[in-house]
Amino acid sequence: MSDVFFHPCPKPVKEVKEKKFYHFKPGKHTKANIKANNELKDVLVDIENCEFRLSGCKGLSMGLQNCHRHKRKWYYSKPELLYDRKQVLKGCPACHDATEYNRELNEQIFMRVRGKE
User: Fold this and answer.
1) Is 0.85 topped by the overall pTM?
2) Long-range contacts of range 84-88, CB-CB < 8 Å, 24 or more positions apart?
3) H or E stretch at 93
4) Are 70 and 99 in contact (CB under 8 A)?
């Protein structure tokens, strides 16, 4: 007989538990944004190029973003305006970034393209 102990049944393998991912349910503002994005797909389907046309604009047809007249927080009290055509322009990322924090330029472009609210 040898010094090594042999056991006829193998040691059970411990199961690795999956990590729990805490997925929070979307709130009312998130639901409103999702609804607005789905509506805007249908409303702005005819726009194929950037509507801003700023200097340095690439006029890309791919990667167009929905650019709102106001910040998202402004629409909390009026969620139906999130997908109003007068409140949204399609823009390339360069133009969207240029107008995102320059409210005066943003308002000038919206007045030129869409008119008053």
Assistant:
1) no
2) 85/43, 85/44, 85/114, 86/114, 86/115, 86/116, 86/117, 87/114, 87/117, 88/40, 88/43, 88/44
3) helix 93-100
4) no
Nearest 5°: CA angle at 54, between 38 and 37? Answer: 5
For residues 72-78, give the mean pLDDT: 89
For residue 1 the two structure tokens come to: 């007989």
Name the more confident of 59 and 73: 73
Share of the chain above pLDDT 70, in %: 91
pLDDT in tens, 15-54: 877 777 767 788 888 888 888 888 888 888 888 888 888 8
Integer Cα distance of 75 and 106 in angstroms: 16
> Largest Cα–Cα distance of the chain, in whole Å?
96
Q: What Cα–Cα distance (Å) separates residue 15 from each residue in 7, 35, 44, 50, 105?
A: 21, 41, 51, 54, 59
Angle between helix 93-100 and 103-113 (nearest 10)? 120
